[in-house]
Design goal:
- By secondary structure, the protein is mainly α.
- The protein has a domain of 74 residues.
- The longest helix has 61 residues.
- The protein is rod-shaped, with a radius of gyration of 28 Å.
- It comes from Billgrantia desiderata.
C-alpha cells in the first residue's frame, strides 16, 4: 500500500498567498481612488476651460472684453486652488497607501513568525 503525501498549505497561505492577495487588493483600491481623483480633476478642468471659451465667444465690445479679462483672473485663482487641492488629495492617497502597506507588511511578518514558530514546535 502506498503512503499518501499530504502538504500543509496553511503556512504557505499565511506566509505568501494571503499577504500577496491583501497587497494586491490594497494596490487595486489605491489605483481606483487615484484614477478616480484624476478623472474628476480632468473633468473639472475641462468644464471650467470650456465655460471660459464660451464666455469669450460672448464678448461683443470693450466692456465685454474687460469683464472677460477680469473673469480670467478669478479663473486663474480658481484653477490654482483646484491644483493645490488635487495635489493635496494625491499626497493624502499616497500617504494612506504607504501606511496601509506598512501595516500589511508588519502583520504579514507577525504571521510568518507565528507560522515558523508553530512549525518549529511541531518538529
Amino acid at each position: 500500500m502506498m503512503k499518501s503525501f499530504s502538504f500543509d498549505t496553511k503556512p504557505f497561505e499565511a506566509m505568501l498567498l494571503g499577504p500577496a492577495r491583501a497587497y494586491a487588493a490594497l494596490s487595486i483600491d489605491y489605483s481606483e481612488k487615484l484614477v478616480g481623483a484624476q478623472l474628476e480633476a480632468v473633468k473639472a478642468y475641462t468644464d471650467t476651460s470650456l465655460a471660459q471659451a464660451r464666455k469669450l465667444l460672448e464678448v461683443r465690445d470693450a466692456d465685454g472684453l474687460r469683464s472677460y479679462l477680469e473673469d480670467q483672473q478669478q479663473f486663474a485663482k480658481n484653477v490654482t486652488e483646484r491644483l493645490k487641492g488635487d495635489a493635496e488629495k494625491a499626497v493624502s492617497l499616497h500617504q494612506d497607501f504607504f501606511q496601509q502597506s506598512q501595516k500589511l507588511a508588519e502583520s504579514s511578518l507577525q504571521e510568518v513568525q507565528k507560522a515558523s514558530s508553530s512549525q518549529t514546535a511541531k518538529a
